[in-house]
Fold these 4 entries.
Entry 1:
Amino acid sequence: MLKIAICDDEGYFRKFIREILTGYMDRSGGIYEIDEFVSGKEFAGLGIEIIQYNVVFLDINMNDMDGMETAQKIREVSNDIFIVFVTAFADYTLEGYKVDAVRYILKNNVNFSEQVYECMDAISMKMNYVVQKKTFNFNEGTRNISLERLLYIESRLHKLEFHIMEDKLNRYSLYGTLNDMERELADDAFVRIHQSYLVNMKYIVNVSRYKAELNNGVRLEIPKARYRQVEETFVAYRGEL
């Protein structure tokens, strides 16, 4: 399912964009869900749950937290989300490069609907190539998941439990060893913090006092013997961002 967020403090424009997107999605025949947010602050307040969305239409000029600030918050948790800026002004292009915005659409453009359609066509094409996915044969069934949505893997009695953010935080399991999974995900920014935990560093906000804190509030223990290596790996990862 394609999940789209519209974040704009103008009720009229939220409704206008929603109608255009509904027409596009109904025509394409895809399964979709569109949610509206009245401010950047409200959307950013979702925290890690932001990654349930595939596309976000963002008004740049909003009070409290503008579209650029909101986009920066989005990028703190996801590089896969497609950000579309909707604005009354055309002077933010350079700022948009920093957050990898896929399009700028001017509100007063007479071809607004056509531009939204073109934008969605481009995003649909990109989604087939950009999002890094991997297929796992879970006990609950085979699933093709985005590695970016995988928070961490926990080893429990010969089974691996995957904690994955989809529409909500879901758990799937399969039989295997964490050693094998660590080798399989060696090039994908995962760090082994414990004999039982392999964690996506994107979601670690802090490493201290022998614990790794994730941005959904979960705290996972790090043994003393691993602590320095985990800390150095995490600091190096943050430095490369």
Note: The first helix runs from residue 11 to 28.
Entry 2:
Amino acid sequence: MKIIGITGGVGSGKSQVLHFLKEKYKARIVKLDEVAKQLQQYKGECYDEIVTVFGKEILQEDLELNRVKLADIVFSDGDKLKILNAIVHPKVKNWILEDILKEKDKGTALYVMESALLFEESYDKLCDEVWYIYAEESVRIKRLKETRGYSKARILKIMENQNTEETFCEKCNYKIDNSGLFENTEKQIGERL
């Protein structure tokens, strides 16, 4: 089984690449953010510790985390983001290791994990190679305004907390330019696989 890590900045089009890999190459796709959210749900493995650290004011009426409030807190304070990551990522990593073993047993040929924090949390060490999904900043801003309704100020604040293009290029094995037509992206993926 080949394990590929997919990373890149917010709005670079990672989800579209993952969908293509699943459809065309029958890859097992795991978005680490989704695993993290699952583990942070009420009665999930990370829930109690997050509430203890960040307080009950981050809870909704149904006792689930208010993800918007939590995001506002951690994306405006780098230290708080580090604390949240230290709670969540060790548990996510354990989940991934178990999932990789299950998929190997099933005979899965391509396992793809996606995260903006692939290097910060050492997920790259679980991968055979890591792909950087790149898109020009103006394209990313436009996509995030259209798909998520984010303001430019919010987008720039999120981007500030992510790796620079230089860092991604330095640490990844392969760069896929997803700034233009997706056919071009498909071609680059096909050449790699």
Note: The longest strand covers residues 2-7.
Entry 3:
Amino acid sequence: MPSPLLAYDQVRIAYDGVAVVRDVSFCVETGTVTCIVGESGSGKSTLVKAAMGLLGPGGAVTDGDIRYGGTSLLALSRKELRALCGQDLALVFQDSLSALTPLRRIGDQVYEALRAHRRISRDECRGLAVAVLARLGLDDPERVLASYPFNLSGGMGQRVGIAMALLSEPKVLFADEPTSALDTIAQRQVIDLFRRINEQRGTTIVLVTHNMGVVRALADSVVVLKDGMVVERGEASQVLDSPTAPYTRELLRATPRLARDVQGAMNHD
């Protein structure tokens, strides 16, 4: 049996010696969408950052392993991991606007990010970026590319971050609450695009979210976290329709109206 594309194996993560994630294990198969759900502080974002080497000061994986294609990401040098990130592995931040350099135009930053991993001209990069931004619902992509980050709203900045991650055509797309800054219409556009790249390109997606409507619209499998530990995992239909953990049932009961609206809109395409 082939190995999963991505595997978390008994992962323990600590900040300054204090464990925030404990004994987390799950696998992500090639071409699937895995949603990691749970309340704020449950460790969802931490798991994604660990795979990308972005835990920051004081953060470390203290036990277990994270493997991509059978290779331990934790054993790679910073240079080796950097070569993978942006090309094989890409991340959409929860607040993409804050991840951009404030004094450089958006178009320059998009080009620099894409040029780091492939030979491409500025004109070709601009054409690709305009197309993706348009698919994400931005009316004037050329103006956005000519703007500075402080000229953009939070929702516009979020869509720029999503576009930058998608342009490199990664094999695995990590997305940390990618729709939280967006209105219902923009959420639908983003989810629609994620669904298309998954189906058409075979992009594997690991999505961190608390929006159960988004989970129902996209997920093949679901991992439920509580206090840094997995309380339930399995196929999306089983976890969402017949949950075994009391905490999962609580999450589903707490689904806000907005999440139901997003799912309803998806169902009426």
Note: The chain has eleven helices and ten strands.
Entry 4:
Amino acid sequence: MTDGPLLVTTVVPAPGLAADDVPESLLIDLLDRGYRSKRKKPAALDLLVTSDVDIARLNRRHLGRDEATDVLAFVDGEMEDGRIRLGDIAISADTARRVAAERGIHYEHELAFYALHGLLHLLGMDDEDDKDRAEMQRLQAKIMKEHGIAIADALRDRL
């Protein structure tokens, strides 16, 4: 959790994941920085770091897509303890580990990429067209760089 404007509740480890599979402080700090770049009012969200099996189940149940994915974001918008509840982010540790190995980047940076991407969706950004995708990716790269995460060539390909 954080004491800043963004309260992040993490649900880890999901079944099959060890606690050390999740760089919790990195993810929370990055989400807080990302939130502060867009908003200042107190807010909260839940972050689930899970497996491909579980994220595929969520994807099927909520979006009708029968496949694993890297990140899902579910907007809420209710109030909770004087904070707006942004919603939930689910990210796949399995996908992050696989993609990081394929691209030769740090697993933790791949997880951070997914978490921040989910946050920006909760804040109303989307990547449905080229213009919106470019804006979202520009902000994502800026926040990661400010947080000290070097944008490796393999990660830069997606930004």
Note: Helices lie at 24-38, 52-63, 93-103, 107-122, 130-146, 153-156.
